[in-house]
């Protein structure tokens, strides 16, 4: 199957910021836990707040980084034989940012980022029936511009070009004679907007907005029942939700900066996961498992972030903390996305090697809360018995370099 997978995987993804978002896209943003919207200082400004490009120096700026994402296993605990655990996962995510020299009051930049994704695999029998593998690779190209209205106020925005590809597998094994295997990709578009107001030299107020992107996938799905398989044309649509960030930063003596960030993510656009096929699924069991709309009814979420930056001669030290909600209600939780509320802890540093070159490292720990389910609440046949999800979370390490010329 061709494009259908990217979406299916996405809906099941698990990284950060609840569900399948990954807001940290550079060394600075990783070290600050994405409390990096009002006070952005390097080429990654192009992604996090393009309006701030207007306040940068007259140089060109580049920033590149590589992030290693480690996803520990999730555990599900109930009575035998329903208990199980997912596999550990390791993912590499590269990012590149560039800001051009100003042209009067205008400026442009571009970013290549990985705004979300995952790989989640279960080999234990009852979990494998629903989510043997969900893998997503997701890349965004984001060309942006800024315009300096005056020395205190600037606006910006740009185009989001998202490419995704992935794999979805499920296998009933000895439990149920059902199996599916999907692969695909898609390209979709959206936009982002930003503005910054600096009432004084040491205070910045910023608002950014990323649009919702409906990933309208079409491709082919391979479905099996009792060892007999058939390929179908298939279509499905899932949102990448809109996100609003409101941030304020304050700097003391040009050496210490605190930033507070509030993020609202509009997950409530995700009501159903509904696959449509080019022809009816005549087998009633296949229709029930793979064709009937799956209720999601996710909720909008709030994330609160704080980041601190301290400049010490050639070394800049950063740290951050965030409280993050999950959009997934108990009723529609599944093995594809055993998400829960989280606390996020970050730290890192940047070293100014020369006047033009710096490098740094950022670390992030996403601590997921254990999630106990009340029997009779979840739609999933196994999870309706109750049980507890544990483990999960994420460890991220980002190494990067920045250059000015």
Tally the helices: what do you get? Answer: 5
What is the number of independent domains?
A: 1
Q: In what range is the share of β-strand residues? A: over 45%
CATH C-level label? Mainly Beta
Tell me the Rg in angstroms. 22 Å
Chain-averaged pLDDT: 89
Total beta strands: 24
CATH homologous superfamily designation: Outer membrane protein transport protein (OMPP1/FadL/TodX)
| Strand order in the largest sheet | 1-4-5-7-8-9-10-13-14-18-19-20-21-24
Helix coverage percent of residues? under 10%
Tell me what the CATH architecture is: Beta Barrel
Q: Give the oligomeric state.
A: single chain
* Most strands sheet: 14 strands, antiparallel, barrel
Any overview of this molecule?
- This protein starts with a helix and ends with a strand.
- It has helices spanning 4-11, 27-31, 45-48, 125-131, 284-290; strands at residues 61-71, 74-77, 84-85, 89-99, 106-113, 118-121, 133-148, 153-171, 178-200, 203-210, 213-225, 228-240, 243-252, 256-265, 272-273, 276-277, 294-295, 301-312, 315-324, 342-352, 357-368, 371-373, 387-391, 394-404.
- By secondary structure, it is mostly beta strands.
- The protein has a single domain, classed as Outer membrane protein transport protein (OMPP1/FadL/TodX) (Porin, Beta Barrel).
- The chain has a 14-stranded antiparallel barrel with strand order 1-4-5-7-8-9-10-13-14-18-19-20-21-24.
- The protein is built from five helices and 24 strands.
């Amino acid at each position: 199957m061709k494009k259908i997978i990217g979406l299916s995987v996405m809906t099941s993804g698990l990284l950060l910021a609840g569900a399948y978002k990954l807001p940290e896209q550079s060394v600075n943003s990783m070290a600050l836990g994405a409390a990096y919207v009002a006070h952005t200082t390097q080429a990654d400004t192009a992604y996090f707040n393009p309006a701030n490009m207007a306040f940068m120096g007259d140089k060109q700026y580049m920033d590149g980084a590589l992030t290693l994402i480690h996803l520990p296993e999730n555990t599900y605990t109930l009575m035998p034989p329903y208990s199980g655990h997912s596999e550990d996962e390791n993912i590499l995510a590269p990012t590149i940012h560039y800001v051009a020299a100003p042209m009067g009051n205008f400026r442009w930049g571009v970013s290549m980022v990985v705004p979300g994704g995952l790989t989640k695999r279960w080999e234990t029998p009852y979990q494998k029936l629903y989510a043997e593998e969900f893998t997503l690779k997701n890349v965004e190209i984001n060309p942006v511009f800024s315009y300096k209205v005056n020395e205190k106020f600037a606006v910006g925005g740009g185009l989001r070009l998202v490419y995704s590809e992935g794999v979805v597998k499920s296998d009933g094994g000895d439990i149920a004679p059902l199996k599916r295997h999907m692969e695909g990709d898609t390209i979709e578009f959206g936009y982002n907007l930003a503005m910054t107001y600096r009432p004084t030299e040491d205070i910045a107020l910023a608002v950014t907005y990323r649009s919702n992107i409906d990933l309208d996938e079409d491709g082919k799905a391979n479905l099996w029942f009792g060892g007999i398989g058939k390929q179908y044309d298939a279509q499905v649509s899932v949102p990448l939700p809109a996100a609003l960030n409101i941030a304020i930063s304050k700097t003391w003596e040009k050496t210490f900066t605190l930033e507070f960030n509030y993020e609202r993510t509009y997950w409530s656009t995700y009501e159903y996961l509904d696959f449509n096929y080019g022809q009816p699924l005549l087998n009633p069991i296949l229709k029930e498992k793979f064709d009937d709309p799956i209720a999601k009814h996710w909720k909008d979420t709030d994330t609160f972030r704080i980041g601190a930056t301290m400049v010490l001669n050639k070394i800049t030290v950063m740290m951050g903390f965030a409280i993050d909600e999950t959009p997934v209600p108990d009723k529609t939780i599944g093995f594809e996305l055993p998400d829960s509320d989280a606390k996020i802890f970050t730290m890192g540093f940047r070293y100014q090697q020369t006047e033009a070159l710096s490098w740094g490292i950022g670390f992030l720990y996403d601590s997921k809360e254990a999630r106990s389910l009340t029997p009779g609440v979840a739609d999933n046949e196994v999870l309706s018995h109750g049980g507890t999800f544990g483990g999960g979370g994420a460890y991220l390490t980002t190494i990067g370099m920045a250059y000015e010329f």
